[in-house]
UniProtKB/TrEMBL annotation:
Protein name, entry field: Chromosome partitioning protein
PANTHER family: COBQ_COBB_MIND_PARA NUCLEOTIDE BINDING DOMAIN-CONTAINING PROTEIN (PTHR13696:SF96), P-LOOP CONTAINING NUCLEOSIDE TRIPHOSPHATE HYDROLASE (PTHR13696)
Pfam families reported for this sequence: MipZ (PF09140)
InterPro entries the record matches: DNA_Partitioning_ATPase (IPR050678), MipZ (IPR015223), P-loop_NTPase (IPR027417)
Gene3D superfamilies reported in the protein's UniProt record: P-loop containing nucleotide triphosphate hydrolases
Length: 256
């Protein structure tokens, strides 16, 4: 059985597609067979990222490690046949969910072995996980956390394994600001109450937006002739390395 990684958050602009592409490509570069499904049927950022990658490699006549983009099935359950097809050839399957509540997203969470939730480091995004009082006290789980809880319950009833849930703190500021510390403390407190791990994600960097039209990631820069990496690129590469290490995926030894 393939290990299924779901990247989900019911808020747009949190870095889901960037996270999906870099994790999928990192696994492919380490020799794993990787499949991908874009469940955002309208925006399709992850799907276009993979399509841009294939087109760029063909145009430049270069060999890039290529995650396989799967296609959705038909009918009331389009996800199951798509997963069944990819599982024939893949070690890992990555599902990129839309930034909204959809039935497809709900279904994806119930099949997740690993769940990644990118979160902008602010209380605006934190509100998806928990309701806060005006005084800053956690009052209880919010809409997205409740959906994850429901997915865990369904998996337990079906006899499936637990979901390893990681919340990624994206766009962390470089300064130890007061709000950054408050968000960090709130996430640590909440993680113990509803069962997730907190991990550092990606900082805000121009390089991520620049690479999208070509379907490239930070790990591809030397393949396209970039011999000298900037300090920002080196730092971003280390962020990706730290993230993949934190995922603790089965059979994965980091080689980049």
């Amino acid at each position: 059985m393939a290990h299924i990684i779901v990247v989900g958050n019911e808020k747009g602009g949190s870095g889901k597609s960037t996270t999906s592409m870099h994790v999928a490509t990192a696994l492919a570069r380490m020799g794993h067979r990787v499949g991908g499904l874009d469940l955002d049927v309208r925006q399709r950022s992850f799907g276009r990222y993979l399509e841009n990658r294939a087109a760029y490699a063909e145009r430049k006549k270069i060999d890039l490690p290529m995650p396989v983009l799967g296609s959705m099935g038909e009918g009331s359950d389009p996800l199951t046949p798509a997963l069944t097809q990819l599982e024939k050839t893949c070690d890992f399957i990555l599902l990129d969910c839309p930034g909204s509540h959809t039935r497809l997203s709900q279904m994806a969470h119930t099949v997740a072995d690993t769940l990644l939730t990118p979160l902008n480091d602010s209380f605006v995004d934190f509100d998806l996980l928990a309701r806060m009082s005006p005084e800053g006290r956690i009052q209880g789980p919010s809409i997205y956390a409740e959906m994850v809880w429901a997915a865990r319950q369904m998996r337990a009833e079906a006899g499936a394994g637990p979901i390893d849930w990681l919340v990624l703190r994206n766009r962390l500021g470089t300064q130890a600001m007061h709000n950054k510390r408050k968000v960090g403390r709130a996430l640590t407190d909440l993680s113990k109450r509803i069962g997730f791990r907190v991990a550092p994600g990606f900082s805000e960097r121009v390089i991520f937006r620049e690479l999208f039209p070509r379907g490239l990631t930070l790990l591809d820069l030397k393949d396209i002739g970039t011999e000298q990496l900037s300090m920002s690129n080196i730092a971003a590469r280390q962020e990706l390395r730290d993230l993949v290490a934190e995922l603790n995926l089965p059979g994965v030894e980091i080689t980049f």
